[in-house]
Amino acid sequence: MLPSLPQRLLTGGFLGLALLVTACSSSDGDHDRLPGQHPAPHEIKSSGPEPRLQDAKFTVEGAPEKECYHSVVGFDDKGPVVRNHDDGWSPMSHHDLDIHSCPDGVTLTIAWGGRKVTGKMGMRACERAVTGENGNGPGVDGVVNEMPLSSLRPGDQFCEFNEMSSNVHLFRLQSVNRSTSETTWTATEWFDLGYTAPES
Questions:
Q1: Which residues of 83-113 are buried (b: 16+ CB within 10 A; e: fewer)?
Q2: What does the H/E/C string look like for 151-195?
Q3: pTM for the full predicted model
Q4: Segment 135-176, tens digit of pLDDT
Q5: DSSP result, 68-121
C-alpha cells in the first residue's frame, strides 16, 4: 500500500531536518572569522610568565688585540643585536651584555646589576635574583661586573632586570672558544608590564 499524503509529508520533513543538521555540523564553528580569513596566531602575553623571545642565539667576538675594545649586545623588536668591536662604546651607552677584551684578559659584564644564577629561571625568579628579594641565597653569585671569561663554563646562566624599562633577560652560555674568546649564547626576554618599582 502506498503511504498516505500526510505520511509522505512527515517523512520528507524529517529528511530535510536531517540534511540541515548534517550541513550545520560540518561547519568549523569559527563564526567570528570572515570567509577566506585564517584564525589569528596565538599571541604570547608579554606581561605573564611566557617569554616574548625565547632561546634566541647569538655569538660575540672577544679575541684579545693590541688595544682594548668592547663587543656588546642589545635588543630590538627582532631579538639580540650584536655590535662587535663597538667603537662608540661608553659607560653610558645602552647595552645588556658586554665582552671587554684587552691584551691582559677578557671579561664579561651584565648590565643593570646582572647576576649569575643556577637552576630553572623564569621571569619572576630573574627579577628577584637581580633586585635581591631572595637575598644572597642559592642561585645568586653576586653582580656580574668584569667577570673573567676564563671562569665561564657552558651552561652558565645570567639574569638581567632593567627596572626602568621592565625588560628581563636570561642569558645562557652555550660555548666558549678558549683560543679566540668567542662566545655563543642564547637569550630569553620578558617584558613585565605589571612591575612597579619600589619606592626609594
A1: bbebeebeeeeebbbbbbbeeeebbbbbbbb
A2: HCCCCCEEEEEECCCCEEEEEEEEEECCCCCCEEEEEEEEECCCC
A3: 0.72
A4: 554 456 678 889 999 999 999 999 999 988 899 999 999 999
A5: -EEEEEEEETTEEEEETT-TT--TTS--SEEEEEETTEEEEEETTT-EEE-S--
